[in-house]
Amino acid sequence: MAGVSREYAGSRPLRVISLVIAAGDRLVLSGLDTGAAEAFIYLVTGAALPDTGTVRVAGVDTRAIATDTEWLASLDRFGIVTSRAVLIDKLAVASNLALPITLEIEPMSPGTRAEVTLLADAAGLARDRLDAPVSALTPAERMRLHLARAMAMRPELVLLEHPTASIETADERAAFGDTLRAAADGRGFGFLALSNDPEFAAGSGGRVLKLMEDGSLNETRSRKGRSRRKWRSRKDATARKWWTFWR
């Protein structure tokens, strides 16, 4: 199996020898700095192509995505949690949360408001904050808003880019992980979190892997009830939907 290599503004290329993610998998991948995490997200979503190797989404090589329409259709599989995503600080939290769903936010229909409230609940964002301007949110609340927006279109896989980097306390970081785990349980998505935060990782309940400099993966912790084992492709690959990242 070939692997991925991608140059970015770091001291060495981003390398991934082999990573296969099945539908419903929950992974926390450590070992990536800020630039590498951004490059990784671009590769996964097809926003950028690898310098060498192949990235496949649901079996389709991202190099074969020829039009913007095809790329947007592929992108619908993902929800993305990143502080780089634009929030409109002067608008209410509810309005920001509604934007992935509809552009008709003033006035907001009762149906949209109900959907926004459910998303806020799933992301652990207090209902009494929905009418506050985004500028009034704490760093932890802003990330919960990003998580709620990422869930809005019912993605199959949620990608998280250092989601707790701006959250100061260990308890809040662990709580964000707990929220992610509960949301994945309730809404049925898998997740891949790029994070070096052990409190968040423990709260999320995800399998923790570390990306090494040579592109190999080491498992650093297994979820409760599962034995430690080397990360490799499962034998039932043909029976499940896959997101595959190859070098």
Radius of gyration based on Cα positions? 18 Å
The overall pLDDT, averaged over residues, is: 88
Report strand order across the widest sheet: 7-8-9-4-10-11
Helical percentage: 25-40%
Main sheet summary: 6 strands, mixed
Structural class: alpha/beta
Share in β-strands: 15-25%
- What is the helix/strand order? EEEEHEEHEHHHEHEHEEE
N-end to C-end Cα span: 7 Å
Number of strands: 12
Shape field: globular
Q: Which residue ranges are poorly predicted, with pLDDT under 50 across at least 5 consecutive positions?
A: 222-247
Number of helical regions:
7
List keywords for this structure.
four-stranded antiparallel sheet; 7 helices; 247 residues; alpha/beta; globular; disordered C terminus
Please give a structural write-up.
The chain is of the alpha/beta class and 247 residues long. The chain has a domain of 68 residues. It has a six-stranded mixed β-sheet with strand order 7-8-9-4-10-11. Strands 3-12-5-6 form a four-stranded antiparallel β-sheet, covered by helices on one side. It has a two-stranded antiparallel ribbon with strand order 1-2.
